[in-house]
Design goal:
alpha+beta, 3 helices
Length: 105
């Protein structure tokens, strides 16, 4: 995995990182989104310093991430249950004699 050095600026501070080359574009996009969201919060709310704005961005983003993870977890569970039902139906169709043998006992 090739890594590259990347510098991003967020709220007037430069952060130097080494990331996988394929992650560079996503990292830059994320840094830009943080900057935009922090500046928006700065216009909407009272704050003491940029740390307050960055904390609000982090809280908002992690809240959204948590909701998405919970939704995916539910969908994974629902999918597993549906696949199990389909598997049972297919098993009954493909092996009807097994059920007949069990019923005869």
């Amino acid at each position: 995995m090739e890594t590259v050095s990347v510098s991003v600026n967020i709220m007037g501070r430069t952060y130097k990182l080494r990331v996988a080359a394929e992650d560079e574009a996503a990292l830059r996009k994320a840094a830009a989104a943080i900057e935009v969201q922090a500046k928006n919060y700065g216009r909407m709310y009272a704050y003491n310093d940029n740390q307050d704005l960055l904390a609000m961005v982090a809280l908002t983003q992690i809240t959204q991430l948590t909701k998405i993870q919970d939704s995916l977890r539910y969908k994974d569970t629902d999918l597993a249950q549906r696949l199990s039902t389909i598997d049972s139906i297919l098993e009954q169709i493909l092996h009807p004699t097994v059920d007949a043998d069990v019923a005869a006992r």
